[in-house]
Amino acid sequence: MSDQLQSLHDEVVKCRACPRLVAWREETGQRRRAAFATSEYWARPLPGWGDRNARLVVVGLAPAAHGGNRTGRMFTGDRSGDFLFAALHRTGFATQPESRHAADGLALVDCWITAAVRCAPPQNRPSPAERDRCAVYLERELAVLKATVVVALGGFAWDALLRVLGPVRPKPAFGHGTQTQIGGRHLLGSYHPSQQNTFTGRLTPAMLDDVFARARSLVDAAEI
User: Fold this and answer.
1) What pLDDT, in 10s, does the model give residues 5-57?
2) CA 80, 28, 5, 134 torsion: positive or negative?
């Protein structure tokens, strides 16, 4: 399994399949925010990361322009990650409640984090074609990991997972707390921990904790 994930990692970080995303991620790495003016940006596609024996996979939309695209690790160094890692820590899936950079000591426990699209997109909006080009990476990742529970952060990740794990008819509608079974796995939906959702109260810590507490119950039940 380690060899397969390493091979996938190597392929992802070299990918240049989407010209618009390549241009945006690299331009963002050059035109840095003032707060990160001295930072060396990753500015490449992001592979998944975490516990290679994970029973839980968390799937986001795409790296943040000044988060993962800067730090080289999904959900690391941005406000969405702060919200997500705090919930993962409270439910036993992370060793720390926050992550600032890729070498800060945070480790995921029984959890793997990845995304539907591996490059930071303009306005956080990948195109359907960009999503579809990236789908092969998500499909291969899930095949290697064999996780029993998958959490989709947002409707974009939900739809990407249904395409990879499906087809399913009728198509399960996305919603916070939605749960279905597909391809032998439990699929849970959660609103994305974006500032748009967390600052407005559309997604609260208790709501995200509930999703990951349910994920914890499902992965533990699978071992009985």
Assistant:
1) 999 999 999 999 999 999 999 999 998 888 888 889 999 999 999 999 999 99
2) positive
Three-state SS string over 24-40 comes to HHHHHHHCCCHHHCCCC
Query: What are the structure tokens assigned to 52, written together?
Result: 């290679």
On whether the CB atoms of residues 98 and 160 are closer than 8 A, the answer is no
**Partner residues linked to 154 by β-bridges:** none
Distance CA 67, CA 79 (A): 8
Q: Is the pTM of this model over 0.90?
A: yes
All structural domains of the chain with their residue ranges: 2-221
Of 24, 36, 22, 48, residue with least CA distance to 112 = 48
CATH number belonging to domain 2-221: 3.40.470.10
Task: Determine the Cα–Cα distance for residues 195 and 201; give it in Å rounded to an integer.
Answer: 9
Instruction: Return the DSSP state at 94.
Output: B
What phi, psi does 187 have (nearest 5°)?
A: -115, 120
Residues 74-99 have a mean pLDDT of: 96
Tell me if residue 211 falls in helix, strand or coil.
helix
Q: Report the C-alpha gap between 56 and 222 in whole angstroms.
A: 11
Long-range interactions of 146-149: CB distance < 8 A, separation 24+: 147/54, 147/55, 147/56, 147/57, 147/112, 147/185, 148/55, 148/56, 148/184, 148/185, 148/186, 148/218, 148/219, 148/222, 149/55, 149/56, 149/57, 149/185, 149/186, 149/188, 149/215, 149/218, 149/219, 149/222
